[in-house]
Amino acid sequence: MIHKLSKKQVNILKQWYIWQLTIGFVTYIGVLVSRALSKQHAPLSSRQLVVIIISFVVMGLAIKIPFEKALEPSQKIRWILRKCNYYFQTIGQALLLPLSFSFVMLLIHQVTHINFFVLAIIFLIYLLFMYIPMTYFVYAKIESLVGRIILLCELIAQGIFAGSQLILEFTKPAQIGHVIQTIDNTQVADVISVLISVAFLMYLWGFKLPNFTFSKKASWIVISFLIVFSVWYVIWNGFGDGGKVSDVLFKYDITMDKINLKMVLTSLETVMEEWLFRFAILSLLLRALQKHAHQIEWAVIINGVLFGLWHFSNGFSGQAWSATFEQMLSAGAAGMLFAAIYLYTQNLAFPIIFHFLNDFLGLSSSADMTMSAPASLDWITTLGQVIIFILIVAFLITGKRKKVIQETLDYQYTTA
């Protein structure tokens, strides 16, 4: 870690970390055992026993982390084991904490008879900040560039992203109401939790928070062009209805489904993606490449490639693999464009709004984020998009625009 906290702050986080683990774990095990001993419930299954054993392992290895002392250079094996435990905890605790607190919620409901709607609101609010102690004692200990990128892309996003569903494990839709159920289904609470955790993590790693205003050094002619292009693209992507190459850019069908809360909240996942890729991962890449002659170019390219690979998992969710590969290609180029736009404008709100509107209008016109298998025209339009995006990227990271980026890079991150 580069940014150190005061002893008082560390002590508060330590107490929070220990009590959070202990209360959740004890309640979790206690409820399971009491259910197993009760004649009203079936005995523990082999699956539940395995989960309990894994939980004991996670808890045993987690509770000692705040008390670890620095190792000597000669203690290489212990150093390796300690690092392995950090990676193990990123998944273990991310799943154990919300799952154990679902049992805390269940116990409170049974003892106090407070209805699940009120408890769901309280626990979802707590979920937003639940991972802060873990961020300090576990996430921040990851030091390598590759390890940090994996942590951000998979361990944090995928681990924390299951939080709301796990913490509401014992609730039913009728018990928590439509709005809370929608928040759960769209995982918007998990999105906010990721934003908070990653912001704190980046601070601990020595990075500044991103800007949300345009750079004074950027040309307003260039910014205006980017705004006009972005507006046109999200409209075309959402409502373009061309059936052949000759009219693919000129035919539109402005038909939208009725806008509802679920559509809006589902599209908010784009905010998390921009926070992860254009703020966190791009900052890590810029720091790692700061002595490279083509720092900006490689950072933008790698950021786009990683963003494209991020969409690979969609193939496992029922989407056709041909559609997934098309999506990865399009997302990779879009990732480069979002990165270049952010670096030039120094305004993270730009790619966030661009990305949000792109997904929201696409969802509002099709009502489904799952892509169908692409036809020949789909491949042609996708390749056209990729070429246009890359041309704009090349324009933004070369010539005078590159100098603008270099002059403002300082300070989006502090050197290690």
TrEMBL record:
Pfam families: Rce1-like (PF02517). Residues 268-361 form the CAAX prenyl protease 2/Lysostaphin resistance protein A-like domain. GO terms for molecular function: endopeptidase activity. Keywords: Membrane, Transmembrane, Transmembrane helix. GO terms for biological process: CAAX-box protein maturation. Belongs to the UPF0177 family. Signal peptide: none annotated. The keyword Protein biosynthesis does not apply. This is CAAX prenyl protease 2/Lysostaphin resistance protein A-like domain-containing protein. InterPro entries: CAAX_protease, Rce1/LyrA-like_dom. The chain crosses the membrane at residues 16-37, 49-67, 87-108, 114-137, 149-168, 188-206, 218-236, 295-312, 333-357, 377-397.
